[in-house]
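PROTEIN FOLDING TASK:
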Amino acid sequence: MMEQILSVGIDIGTSTTQLVFSKLFIENTASSFAIPKVNIVDKKVIYKSDIYYTPLKSITEIDGEYVKTIIESEYKKANISPKDVDTGAVIITGETARKENANLVLEKLSGLAGDFVVATAGPDLESIIAGKGAGADVISKQEKTVVANLDIGGGTTNISIFDRGEVIDTTCLDIGGRLIKVNPETMKIEYVSDKIKKLAKNIDIDLEVGKKINQHELNYVTDKMSDVLEEALGIGVKQNSKDLDLILTTKGLKKEYDIEYISFSGGVADCIYDAEANKESFQYGDIGVVLGKSIRKSILFDEFKVHKPSETIRATVVGAGTHTTDISGSTITFTKDMFPFKNIPILKLSSQDEELDYHSLSGAIQEKLNWFNLEDGNQLIALALKGVKNISFNELQSLAKSVIEGMKEIIDTEKPLIVIVENDIAKALGQTINRLLGYNKDIVCIDSVKVKNGDFIDIGKPLANGKVVPVVIKTLAFGY
């Protein structure tokens, strides 16, 4: 029997703020005689909000109250209550993620996001969400090739690389349409980011607030920004690694693959695909149109096949609403309904740790617990391990004992013991741990979930008659 869950995507970007509601359809795809295998089988966007300019109090501060008013009004238009929402994401992206009060804005929105919504601003996750929202993963899978999606917004360009449907690489650069703001009537600069000011200086152009600038000079600057994008993807003849290093906000791309297709999303994308449209260069009071034209005439269109996605400016918010949620495996254990859990840090064992004997494994767990501040007893930790396929009874007993010994500091608190296993053994492992603890400890043990150290996890309320739980894996980061 198919079940529906309601997802929200809220994107507060450098230039725009928007929202979508989506329905996710989950179903048991296994036969009647097999272990249940519950998957998300379909996704459908059911409501798209208007697109608003992101309200700012100043260059360094978001107008949180106004953002909240925008989101509340869109809930009313969609005739949806926050309590109806099961999952999704609130994402503060681009330069907006670096504003002084980004965390406070997320707190203001928490009541509008239902019981189980992730709030994140990590550039890697943002790149992936935008790429999936633009459908780059689908094209990559259909064509059995490598696709790069460049999500170019007001403040940043997030690049995600997909190989046959799977994300293999990401990066983020400070290139966007709102990094220089220009009064279209006076042609005076009203804002310029520090990095773009330095980039322009490298080509002998001085950008200062209040200074009058001509379009010829700005064309040189946006051409240089386009050159940096070329270099980021490993092409171009005007390469200057110092410029790329300046503009990168994370690590660069690995370039261990051959990109065949590229696609563009974000607000600047429409200015790229419609570069010949009758748009005034500074009609938005920024360089978005000019940057789009520079990219359109770049060698990116010569070196790669170019795919135009169905979603451009809405790619991130659509991705947030439909691609952040996954489903756990169908053999899980939980002793009572304590859900949802939010922002639980991951303690991931390495493969080297798990190659130790089970007695040494408990010591490895204890050692890594020291990474976390457990002194006040309020810190929840999720232990993550790969687990053994087709595990024997004796191995299962030994593994359960190692987890109990290693996580003793958690077990001695009132916090639940949360264990995440990559392989499909969570039900047996959870039941064994529960028995060894005398059925006196709250336990959550889920499987078929891949995580790494530095990740956080949200675990939502059980679905499909308790067979699975929705999960979101993310990195919480507000500065790069």
Q: What stands out?
A: The longest strand covers residues 16-28. The radius of gyration is 24 Å. The chain has three domains: 3-120, 135-310, 331-463. The first helix runs from residue 64 to 78.
